[in-house]
């Protein structure tokens, strides 16, 4: 609670601080707005297009004193950085001062933009509105400014490459003046009511004037003095008292084209005067528009240059805005302004007739029953074409009879022309879907062959358009078909707004029919909603077959969701157990069923341990026998292949055996006495197997190489075997057995944390098993390869056996056989030897491979043979006695020692 109270206090403090900052900011903004409003004024700027019309434009400016820029430092007070992309901006200022220039710029190379300013000089005869002094890099742009009552509105002195656009100069002595300035551009500027000249050029060249207007100049519209190569295009010069254009003797190479000269030098012979040289009033084959051109021949220019416009263009002599030629062709008066007259009473004045190219003396030029005035002002049809939209219906008929659009051949945009609908299909040309079935008339006729006058062509209760949209047949009654198998007929799907081809229109996993049947919305994805609050979503209710609007479908007092979660049937009444009842029931179940099962399982494992024990002991005995066979009979190396396989089986058996012990130890169970004894015996057997059988036999293989009485090829083959089968490759087997010993020893001792230690030891042991398996597979392959390398042994042995003359004595015979008997299994020799020979060979090889002086007793030999599992017959016993005698004699004579 204390923590919550602290949070509340901190929140209140933050709210108080935020509110205080907001009110301080708000008061600051109000003060700034009041200061700004006090510095703003509204100026009414008047610009006169001609002497009879004025237009007032209201702008809001900020009052400012005259601006004088004489260095870059003076510009830092204005926004911008002075670059081409970010110039300094002087804008929206109102400067009124009769004692100074409005804006003067000099001594800078920065880029400057002057725009939307109002400058008034109070009729000054000494100062200039915008004065650009010695700015030669084209860095000044003057845009949309109004300059009033200065000696010169815009004055350029020694300034080049600057731009002036949409500026207005009124009531100044000179609208614009250029002195020693070059390559400047003036576009769409207006100069009105200049007391002297509208534009004055002095020693300035290569400037360009485009689409400017000079109106009501008291002297010249444009005056040139010692200037050349300036270009004037599409400018308008009106009502100059003297010449609209005047060029003195020092002006040359000026070019004028497409300029309008209207009512300049009234009463004179020409609106332009040229005393210079090489000036041109044309370009190519285009001249200028001359107010007073007679209409034939070139237009003459006054002055000593005897210049003229060879390609003059007519304007309008009577100023009625109708070309004189058109007036003559249509019987109108070219000497008076009759533009407002309407001699044919069609609602169009002569000027409007001229503008629409209609006959001013014919009220219906195209004879379509609509007069020209109505066509132009009301219907916007072509007064020169009786069928404006080319739909084969007369414009007058479309307007007065069919009420169709004479400008649109298909008024209702249904694909049929108005003419086709009226004359062929009898459909409504004003309604694209006459029968209101959702298909246009054109679609019904051309695509679906349905009746455009019947919304349900097949009368199945479903509109044609809906059937078409969902790929049903609008020409066949398919009301009761359920195409998508959602338990809704086509008619029901239409009424519900669902898709008859999709059993789940809203893709929420619930069929449309089921949703409608259970008052759900088949058009709304509501599978995750739980309307009845029973813990089941609508989708889960559908899958379970429960009622999505009833939390307990089977009315057994349990929520459907709870029943499903707890494995109950929500459609069948269930018995609910209280928590304490569940606990009691669980305890009874545990005591009566689960615990006995566990003890039975453990008992089975212990029985399996005992059963596996005997199997392991037998396998160890068999392995010992296999190893003894191999090393008793040094030639029977093939037997080692099967021995390796037996080792693998033995290890697998031992793995399962130890796994059962691991289960008991991991469950903290103690080994019983008999199990401990079995484990100890297994340990002893394995220890003996590792130390006495494996290691001794491996060392013995190495010793065989030193036998001097072996033939050379036998020694070579054994050497190769030892090289391939080195001590290093025996180490995985030895290591694996060592780990087994350690593992068994630890289980027997049960010291420390048995379970954790076994877990650490067992994976390592298993890893060594995999090495043993790899080793076994590898050695089997090597031994087989060696056995296949030399077949001489078998053939030589066959010769010796068959040589009865040289083998009268058994001892000599066996000696010879032993010399060549290399890597050959007795199974291979069986077809060549009789039973007695095989028995004697086994005995000889066994004795030969042992330490004879220590094993000369007959009983020991027989016991060893029996231990090895060999069959000892009576003949064999007799043979043993004979051999022992011979060996004893041989030993006494010193012949029985191994070399």
From TrEMBL:
Record has Signal as a keyword: yes
Segments passing through the bilayer: 7-26, 583-601
Biased composition (Acidic residues): 361-375, 384-398, 407-416
Main location: secreted
Superkingdom per UniProt: Archaea
PANTHER family tied to this protein: EXPORTED CALCIUM-BINDING GLYCOPROTEIN, EXPORTED CALCIUM-BINDING GLYCOPROTEIN-RELATED
Protein name as it appears in the record: Right-handed parallel beta-helix repeat-containing protein
Species of origin: Candidatus Heimdallarchaeum aukensis
């Amino acid at each position: 609670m204390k923590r919550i109270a602290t949070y509340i206090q901190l929140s209140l403090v933050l709210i108080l601080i935020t509110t205080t900052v907001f009110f301080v900011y708000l008061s600051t903004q109000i003060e700034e707005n009041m200061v700004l409003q006090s510095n703003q004024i509204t100026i009414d700027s008047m610009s006169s297009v001609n002497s009879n019309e004025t237009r007032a434009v209201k702008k809001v400016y900020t009052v400012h004193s005259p601006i004088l820029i004489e260095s870059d430092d003076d510009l830092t007070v204005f926004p911008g950085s002075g670059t081409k992309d970010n110039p300094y901006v002087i804008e929206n200022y109102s400067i009124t001062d009769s004692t100074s220039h409005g804006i003067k710029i000099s001594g800078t190379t920065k880029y400057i933009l002057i725009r939307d300013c109002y400058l008034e000089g109070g009729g000054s005869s000494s100062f200039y509105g915008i004065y650009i002094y010695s700015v030669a890099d084209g860095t000044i742009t003057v845009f949309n400014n109004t300059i009033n009552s200065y000696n010169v509105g815009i004055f350029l002195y020694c300034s080049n490459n600057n731009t002036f656009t949409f500026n207005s100069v009124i009531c100044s002595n000179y609208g614009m003046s250029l002195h020693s300035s070059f390559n400047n551009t003036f576009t769409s500027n207006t100069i009105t009511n200049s007391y002297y000249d509208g534009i004055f050029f002095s020693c300035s060249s290569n400037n360009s004037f485009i689409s400017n207007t000079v109106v009501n100049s008291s002297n010249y519209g444009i005056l040139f003095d010692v200037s050349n190569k300036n270009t004037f295009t599409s400018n308008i010069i009106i009502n100059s008292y003297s010449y609209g254009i005047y060029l003195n003797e020092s002006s040359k190479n000026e070019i004028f084209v497409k300029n309008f000269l209207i009512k300049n030098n009234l009463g004179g012979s020409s609106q332009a005067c040229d005393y210079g040289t090489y000036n041109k009033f044309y370009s190519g084959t285009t001249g200028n528009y001359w107010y007073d051109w007679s209409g034939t021949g070139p237009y003459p220019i006054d002055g000593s240059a005897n210049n003229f416009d060879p390609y003059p263009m007519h304007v309008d002599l009577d100023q009625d805005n109708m070309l004189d030629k058109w007036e003559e062709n249509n019987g109108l008066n070219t000497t008076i302004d009759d533009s407002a007259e309407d001699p044919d009473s069609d609602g169009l004045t002569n000027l409007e007739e001229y503008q629409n190219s209609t006959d001013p003396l014919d009220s219906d030029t195209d004879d379509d029953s609509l007069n020209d005035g109505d066509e132009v002002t009301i219907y916007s049809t072509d007064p020169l074409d009786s069928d404006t939209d080319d739909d084969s219906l007369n414009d007058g008929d479309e307007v007065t009879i069919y009420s169709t659009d004479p400008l649109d051949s298909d008024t209702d945009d249904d694909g049929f022309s108005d003419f086709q609908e009226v004359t062929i299909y009898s459909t409504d040309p004003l309604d694209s879907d006459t029968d209101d079935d959702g298909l246009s008339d054109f679609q019904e006729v051309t695509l679906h062959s349905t009746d455009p006058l019947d919304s349900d062509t097949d009368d199945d209760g479903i509109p044609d358009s809906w059937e078409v949209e969902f790929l049903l047949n609008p020409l066949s009654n398919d009301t009761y078909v359920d195409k998508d198998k959602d338990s809704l007929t086509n008619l029901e799907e239409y009424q519900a707004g669902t898709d008859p081809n999709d059993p789940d229109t809203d893709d929420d996993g619930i069929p449309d029919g089921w949703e409608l049947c259970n008052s759900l919305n088949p058009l709304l994805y509501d599978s995750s909603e739980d309307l009845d609050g029973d813990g089941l979503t609508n989708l889960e209710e559908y899958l379970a077959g429960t009622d999505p609007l009833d939390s307990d479908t089977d009315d057994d007092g349990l929520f459907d969701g709870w029943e499903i979660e707890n494995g109950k049937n929500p459609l069948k009444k269930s018995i609910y157990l209280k928590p304490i009842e569940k606990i009691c029931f669980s305890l009874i179940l545990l005591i009566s069923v689960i615990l006995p099962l566990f003890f039975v399982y453990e008992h089975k494992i212990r029985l399996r341990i005992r059963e596996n024990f005997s199997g392991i002991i037998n396998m160890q005995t068999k392995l010992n026998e296999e190893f003894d066979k191999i090393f008793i009979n040094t030639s029977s190396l093939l037997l080692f292949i099967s021995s390796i396989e037996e080792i693998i089986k033995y290890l697998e058996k031992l793995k399962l055996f130890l796994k059962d012990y691991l289960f008991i130890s991991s469950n903290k169970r103690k080994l019983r006495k008999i199990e401990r004894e079995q484990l100890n015996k297994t340990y002893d057997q394995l220890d003996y197997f590792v130390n006495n059988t494996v290691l001794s036999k491996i060392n013995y293989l190495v010793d065989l190489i030193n036998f001097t009485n072996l033939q050379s090829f036998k020694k070579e083959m054994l050497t190769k075997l030892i090289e391939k089968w080195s001590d290093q490759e025996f180490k995985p087997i030895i290591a694996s057995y060592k780990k087994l010993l350690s593992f068994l020893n630890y289980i027997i001792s049960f010291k420390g944390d048995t379970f954790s230690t076994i877990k650490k030891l067992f994976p390592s042991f298993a890893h060594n098993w995999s090495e043993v398996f790899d080793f076994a597979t590898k050695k089997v392959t090597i031994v087989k390869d060696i056995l296949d390398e030399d077949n001489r042994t078998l053939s030589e042995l066959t010769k010796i056996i068959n040589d009865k003359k040289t083998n009268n004595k058994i001892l000599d015979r066996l000696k010879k056989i032993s010399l060549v008997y290399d890597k050959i299994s007795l199974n291979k020799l069986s077809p060549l030897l009789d039973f007695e020979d095989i028995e004697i060979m086994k005995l000889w090889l066994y004795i030969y491979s042992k330490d004879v002086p220590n094993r000369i007793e007959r009983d020991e030999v027989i016991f060893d043979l029996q231990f090895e599992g060999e069959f000892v017959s009576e003949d064999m016993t007799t043979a043993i006695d004979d051999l022992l005698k011979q060996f004893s004699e041989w030993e006494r004579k010193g012949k029985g020692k191994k070399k």
